[in-house]
Specification:
- This protein is mainly alpha-helical.
- It contains 15 helices and 7 strands.
- The longest helix is centred in the middle third of the chain and has 20 residues.
């Protein structure tokens, strides 16, 4: 397979994946004195992987990313897939305890945030969204009537429907009105087009101008599409909110290492504390690794004891493989209210009054 064909194959991947593959393929070529990949034997990949672990002390996930790129190279560029990779020194994945915030700690982290940063942080926590899942939301992914968020471009191209936290309903509606007004101004100026996923742009040529396909968290400045040279508004860069959360943690008087994934993990832990089983949590988060989380299992082992002490009825155990629909039907729950008992202390409409003091409002439900 020639270079252009490899480039065509990379176009089927996301931009992040394509850039990562090209980075590690370039690292492999430089490690072997700029030799062409067709001149590299199978042992070249083994030596490069060992070098990452022994000399550069790369993390296990870094070594795994490099291996994935090398497998892509051998399969599509050399058309000789690797059979087995033997004799490679593997980096051990350290077993670190997961960072989980209490409901009060989540509230303290939310206090310094405002505007879009507060909205995205609340969606990470109240909806269990991943980092980019919140930024890739479009206007037609939000259902305010049912209190649902549709995730269409999740990890592994797996879509799902999750909950919309009740405290964000009014601020999110106001935010969408402002974004729609900006989009209407762009349309009058001859812009207002947004990049569509996959091949929808060719199937529906005018869909990129429709309001439903606009990003919920759009950029302030117009973005030029390198493929079509059209100007529109892409979603904001995730680093803006990541930095805001990093700055909010010391302001909250905390020393924990809090990331966006910490909010997602805390969402799962608080659901477990309120009696939901692993199956329901997996459906909302679409994360099969949740069932193998040691922190969750630590909570599951003494479950009956602490529930009896707290005066709660024992909930279903994770080994009871109930389907999500049957589980909700047996308890009279609907999809718009699967987390009705999660406690949350949140901020009253920070988007409308960002300069005012923000009183804490205690709520028993996030929906």
């Amino acid at each position: 397979m020639h270079g252009p064909e490899v480039a065509d194959q990379l176009r089927t991947y996301s931009r992040r994946t394509a850039r990562a593959y090209l980075h590690w393929i370039g690292r492999l070529i430089l490690f072997h004195d700029r030799r062409h990949p067709r001149q590299l034997a199978q042992g070249a990949a083994n030596r490069f992987q060992t070098h990452l672990a022994v000399k550069e002390h790369a993390a296990a996930c870094t070594q795994k990313h490099a291996l994935t790129a090398i497998l892509f190279l051998y399969e599509h560029a050399r058309e000789r897939p690797l059979d087995r990779i033997e004799g490679v020194v593997r980096t051990r994945r350290p077993q670190r305890p997961a960072v989980v915030l209490t409901v009060e700690e989540v509230s303290r982290v939310m206090v310094p945030l405002s505007g879009e940063k507060w909205l995205t942080a609340m969606l990470w926590y109240g909806g269990g969204l991943r980092l980019l899942e919140a930024f890739r939301l479009r206007a037609n992914d939000l259902d305010f009537q049912r209190g649902e968020i549709t995730v269409r471009e999740g990890k592994g191209e797996k879509g799902r429907v999750t909950t919309m936290p009740r405290p964000v309903l009014l601020p999110l509606k106001e935010h969408l009105r402002r974004v729609e007004a900006i989009q209407q101004q762009d349309l009058v100026a001859g812009y207002g087009r947004v990049e569509l996923p996959h091949a929808l742009a060719s199937t529906y040529p005018n869909a990129s101008r429709e309001w439903g396909w606009q990003f919920v968290f759009a950029q302030q400045n117009r973005w030029v599409n390198p493929r079509s040279s059209e100007q529109g508004r892409h979603h904001v860069h995730e680093s803006l909110v990541q930095k805001a959360i990093k700055q909010a943690v010391p302001k909250a008087g905390m020393t924990k290492r809090v990331t966006t994934h910490t909010l997602r993990r805390s969402f799962a832990m608080h659901m477990l504390d309120d009696g939901y089983d692993i199956r329901t949590i997996q459906e909302l988060l679409v994360d099969k690794d949740v069932g193998h989380d040691p922190e969750l299992h630590a909570r599951l082992q003494p479950r009956g004891a602490w529930r009896a002490a707290a005066g709660r009825r024992p909930g279903p155990l994770p080994h009871e493989r109930w389907a999500g629909a049957a589980y909700r039907a047996a308890r009279g729950l609907t999809m718009e209210q699967p987390t009705a008992t999660i406690r949350l202390i949140t901020i009253a409409q920070p988007c409308d009054r960002p300069q005012m003091s923000k009183p804490l409002v205690m709520g028993r439900s996030i929906l």
